[in-house]
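Customer escalation, tier 2.

The customer says the design service returned an amino acid string that "doesn't look like it belongs to this structure." They asked us to rerun it and document both sides in this ticket. The original structure tokens are below, unchanged.
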């Protein structure tokens, strides 16, 4: 019997400072070795439960994973390879921030099997980086990027952020072009989200100082136009890739591939259940590796699966495959969501091909409203 596919997300919540624009779980001062002890106990707990699965992707994220030392990285990857079976072409990604990674560490990451690097640049404008509380400059990023290429990384993503305080359209276009000129294989271009209770939330709760809605919409439209000129294709609302370099980790999440989330606050979708680890560090350190870690499991029932197939699938440019929906749920999209699809097709916000249901360009502009209507 062929092994089933599985994604693995490993949260490494180490950060040089608390983020200003998100309510981040971690901060400086955690004992990294103690955290790794707990994390490895949790990974081992899944050894038997995941025995029938093969990992198609592994993603080391959250915080700044590149703050781990070389011995810590070697220990962690050794544990992953001991407890899980990996596909031969498993996509293994680590997030990394400029200023926390050097040529020696990059060489180590390649040697232990990391084959994709996701660099958190956010902006090519040093004033914007300072506003975000980043510890790096654009020049630091360029050095890291060049070092990564020299270390043998042939698959690099760069994270960018638009809609920043005081950011003009020309500022955003300058950042886009500066990064696209470098030739990364993937670019994630997100809009700033102001979270309540964060430092940015306090500063910009009323929206004053942020680009207005028309400017943000123009930034969004220009992103697709500019990146297309450099050979990038938008395959999801905020993600662009060169052909063949779409993120396997992202696609798995949007198409319902089961995943295990290990580490502080990490969420899982596995064994027909959805659940999340505790967000309290001391509780996680105490309970990792034991059944006590998981207290509340939500059954991933058919209603939820159908909602998520539509809600997440429509975020991709390919959309939701009609025959796959019928095969997996025993009912057609039309029989479940006929009123909703009819409404938005009539408004020119959804289109139907022979094989898929997709958002139109106009639909993408108001995707949040449309996607919410697919919640039964």
């Amino acid at each position: 019997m062929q092994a089933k596919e599985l994604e693995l997300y490993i949260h490494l919540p180490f950060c040089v400072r608390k983020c200003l624009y998100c309510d981040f779980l971690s901060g400086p001062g955690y004992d990294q070795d103690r955290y790794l002890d707990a994390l490895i106990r949790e990974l081992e707990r899944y050894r038997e439960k995941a025995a029938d699965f093969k990992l198609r992707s592994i993603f080391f994220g959250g915080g700044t994973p590149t703050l781990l030392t070389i011995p810590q990285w070697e220990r962690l990857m050794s544990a992953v390879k001991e407890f899980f079976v990996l596909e031969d072409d498993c996509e293994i990604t680590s997030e990394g921030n400029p200023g926390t990674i050097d040529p020696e560490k990059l060489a180590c990451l390649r040697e232990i099997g990391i084959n994709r690097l996701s660099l958190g640049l956010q902006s090519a404008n040093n004033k914007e980086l300072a506003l975000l509380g980043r510890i790096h400059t654009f020049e630091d990023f360029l050095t890291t990027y060049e070092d990564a290429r020299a270390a043998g990384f042939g698959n690099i993503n760069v994270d960018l952020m638009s809609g920043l305080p005081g950011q003009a359209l020309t500022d955003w276009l300058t950042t886009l072009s500066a990064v696209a000129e470098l030739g990364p294989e993937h670019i994630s271009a997100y809009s700033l989200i102001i979270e309540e209770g964060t430092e940015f939330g306090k500063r910009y709760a009323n929206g004053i100082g942020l680009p207005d809605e028309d400017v943000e919409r123009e930034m969004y439209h220009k992103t697709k136009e500019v990146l297309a000129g450099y050979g990038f294709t938008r395959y999801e609302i905020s993600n662009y890739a060169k052909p063949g370099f779409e993120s396997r980790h992202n696609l798995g999440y949007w198409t319902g591939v089961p995943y295990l989330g290990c580490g502080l606050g990490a969420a899982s979708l596995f064994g027909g259940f959805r659940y999340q680890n505790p967000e309290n560090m001391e509780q996680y350190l105490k309970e990792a590796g034991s059944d006590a870690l998981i207290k509340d499991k939500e059954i991933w029932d058919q209603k939820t699966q159908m909602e998520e197939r539509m809600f997440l699938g429509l975020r991709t440019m390919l959309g939701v495959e009609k025959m796959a929906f019928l095969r997996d749920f025993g009912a057609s999209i039309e029989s479940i969501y006929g009123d909703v699809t009819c409404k938005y097709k009539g408004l020119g916000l959804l289109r139907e091909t022979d094989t898929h249901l997709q958002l139109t360009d106009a639909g993408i502009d108001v995707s949040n409203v449309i996607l919410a209507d697919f919640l039964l």
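Tier 2 assessment: The sequence is consistent with the input. The two ends are 35 Å apart (CA to CA). DSSP finds 15 helices and 15 strands in the chain. Sent an explanation to the customer and offered a walkthrough call.
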